[in-house]
Amino acid sequence: QVQLVESGGGSVQAGGSLRLSCAASGFTHSRNCLGWFRQAPGKEREGVAGIYTGGSITYYVDSVKGRFTISQDNAKNTVYLQMNSLKPEDTAIYYCAASALTDEEKRSGGYCYSFLRRGGLYWGQGTQVTVSS
Predict the structure, then answer these.
(1) Tens digits of per-residue pLDDT, 19-47?
(2) Residue 17 falls in which region: left (phi positive, over 0), alpha (psi -120 to 50) or beta
(3) CA 98 – CA 3 distance, rounded (Å)
(4) What are residue 14's phi and psi, to 5 degrees?
(5) String of b and e for 77-109 (b: at least 16 CB within 10 Å)?
(6) Between 20 and 30 A from 23 (CA), which of 67, 71, 79, 97?
């Protein structure tokens, strides 16, 4: 059974930093898509950052490029989201998500390229990030 446990949310002023962690367990193999999604009140869920765990290929939504960094520690089965230069519009509940590669991703070699759009099969419980101006 796959489990994702997030930690690291909190409140910070604009311009500050936070680091989110997602500890993953229960995968049958090591090559998956892991990443972070967020949902602000009244808005749709948005894919923020994803990583292909088999090769550390990363993807970001345009609004966080240059500010957020996703990384992994394979020894700890943990994925991190380092968030710098936070803005009030980054305020949301952040969810860790995971899925296997799609057949198309395997065929094309574009590992996890659609993950931020399609979402995960497995989800964490969410952690609140609040950025004040």
Answers:
(1) 999 999 988 667 899 999 999 999 999 99
(2) beta
(3) 9
(4) -55, 140
(5) bbbbbebeebeeebbbbbbbbbbbbbeebeeee
(6) 67
**Phi and psi dihedrals of 29, rounded to 5?**
-145, 170
Helix (H, G, I), strand (E, B) or coil at 15: coil
Name the phi and psi angles at 53, rounded to 5. -70, -15
- pLDDT for the residue numbered 118: 94
Rounded Cα–Cα distance for residues 118 and 110 (Å): 14
What lies within 8 Å, CB to CB, of 84 at 6+ separation is 17, 67, 68, 69
Q: In whole angstroms, how far apart are CA 121 and each of 81, 82, 100, 103?
A: 19, 23, 8, 15
Contact (CB, 8 A) for 111 and 102: no
The β-bridge partners of 78 are 23, 73
